[in-house]
Amino acid sequence: MQTEKERELAPAGEPERQYYFMELLRRHNEERSAELGRSLTYHIETFGCQMNAKDSEKLAGILEAAGYVPELSEQADFVLYNTCTVRENANTKVYGRIGYLGNLKSKNPEMRIALCGCMMQEPHVLAKIKQSYRFVDIVFGTHNIYMLAELIWRLVSGEKRVVEIWDGTEKIVEELPSEHKYRFKAGVNIMYGCNNFCSYCIVPYVRGRERSRRPEDILAEIKKLADEGIVEVMLLGQNVNSYGKTLDSPLSFAELLKKVEAVEGIRRIRFMTSHPKDLSDELIEVMRQSRKVCRHLHLPMQSGSTKILSRMNRRYSKEDYLALVDRIKAAMPDISLTTDIITGFPGETEEDFLDTLDVVKRAGFDSAYTFLYSKRTGTPAATMEEQVPEAVAKERFNRLLALLSEQSAKQTGKHTGMTAEVLVEEQNEQEPSLLTGRLGNNLLVHFPGEASLVGQFVQVKLCECKGFYYIGRQV
Ligand code: 5AD
Ligand code: SF4
What percent of the chain shows pLDDT beyond 90? Predict the structure, then answer.
């Protein structure tokens, strides 16, 4: 078969190999398009976190280089689900929707379905897909997203179903195409994987060991983004505070931030996520002195109880967390803190939960993501004694939400009457006469304005606080 011969001719080195397959596919798709009298379309559905959102931009970049054009609905010729498995309800959602894709496929003979992301790294998920969702054409994991073009080519070459999932990798493939959802802000991976093994968390198993990108590669990417007009970058990693430890010539995250700060054209720098155990005084100092690093820290606490934190393998105590918050606020009184909190972790008693409420009262969070503990097969917490009944976890969850909304309204409202610089992100969907902008501290503000301001910095007076956002007026 012609296609097999072409595969044998593929370069061995990356990223050349992938560019070769993108080009083969592009030609193939062009021919197919001519036969059909229309373009071939793609649709990517992203579940989960910012890492997945970033991966989806890379996947979109590959698909567009291969000649597919974006389609907003799932009625497309190539539909890709980039999945999340951090909590059980994420999985349930995905299964339901794959079933729906099956129906669509029966109506469009051209349609191909691919699944990737964290869920696919779990053996029981793959088994279920192989058995119950036979119409899925391609399945791949978190370590080999860069080879999407090659995987599609294998399908084109006649393989019935392409499954390519790796347990781990040392490899970081640079220099592949990437699409950007926004033309003024972009995420930049600085590291992959996680070595922390918090006892509830599946991420280290599905995203593998921690690997830092080389600073030269990160900076080259950011410079290129700045040249393309990007003004805000979000540095991404599961635990950015341990960046650089495994590099040939180690570099701290704080040092990396200083280098990013020096890139001309970049005006705002954000990062996530920070693990409290690794957040250094050096980083606080760099943030304090910086003109570009935004005054916002996402600092997941998970629980306020030292006993539960120890069972979670978080490696800090309630007191350590509060002391860290004090150090951060002493250096930057205007900082906005946000956090993640889990209720119902195995062994959590009413007293432990009261410790969580206590930290919430004392830390002054602007907002928090709250989660019901979800048992993930294969993690140490899944087999711990004293699993908390769901009703108890839910009841605590609701009490936590009530306290948080009271606290965050107080915290957020502090800026009422002030004028601040916002980066205009979009026209408001419900009310097109309004724009939505983001403050340095990550709060949103809606204000009347022209759509031409999207992507620009403007000064906005924060007139009225509506809980977690403001209504403002351009000045
Ligand atoms: N159950 C509930 N929440 C979890 N998270 C991670 N794993 C679980 C789990 N098994 C939450 C943590 C983490 C956020 C991204 O998701 O709070 O910080
Ligand atoms: Fe999961 Fe903990 Fe790693 Fe975050 S730091 S990804 S919660 S193991």
Answer: 91
